[in-house]
Design a protein that fits this description.
mainly alpha, single chain, 7 helices, about 110 residues, elongated, about 0% strand
């Protein structure tokens, strides 16, 4: 009796693609807000359609990375808690980051 196994070449190709995708995102990656927080993420998890709309409505002025250093974290967390599915800004960033990684690894579009 013999068993024929099909699809191993496809599996090996997929694993090679995954290895390449992991290498591309390894280390620190500067990611634009609109890429980290795509519209579908915002619509699914917040009261806003875009990350820009969220910050426009927040009252916080964010023009550059340094502006985040000046934000009162407690007030930002309160705003996030009241207007999103998340309790804190860090929780929101972590969720968006996980979905970004999945999209980059092509393991899912993060839109599940």
């Amino acid at each position: 009796m013999s068993i024929e196994i099909k699809g191993l070449n496809n599996l090996l190709h997929s694993l090679e693609d995954l290895k390449q995708n992991v290498a591309e995102i390894e280390g620190e990656n500067p990611v634009a807000f609109n890429e980290m927080f795509p519209d579908f993420f915002m619509m699914r998890n917040t009261n806003f359609s875009t990350i820009d709309e969220m910050f426009d409505k927040s009252g916080f002025i964010i023009n550059k990375q340094g502006d985040f250093d000046d934000i009162n974290v407690e007030k930002l967390d309160q705003f996030v808690n009241e207007n999103t599915e998340f309790e804190t800004w860090d929780e929101m960033k972590q969720a968006a980051g996980k979905e970004w990684i999945l999209r980059k690894l092509r393991l899912g579009d993060g839109n599940e």
